[in-house]
Prior knowledge:
By secondary structure, the chain is of the alpha+beta class. The chain has helices at 7-17, 19-22; strands spanning 27-30, 35-39, 45-49, 54-58.
Amino acid sequence: MKKKNAWxxxxxxxxxxxPSLKRKAIGYSPHGYMxxxxxxxxxxxxxxxxxxxxxxxxxx
Length: 60
């Protein structure tokens, strides 16, 4: 049986790939298929896709 991916697993993947950004992140929310929207205190937002294993900065 396959393991289901939880949003927290995707956030942990983000934290392992981007250790410098994980210290600044204040939260996350689901955003589409296998991706999360990560929030930062200065208002910056970033979408991390676990499928592509990379993050994209959103403009304010």
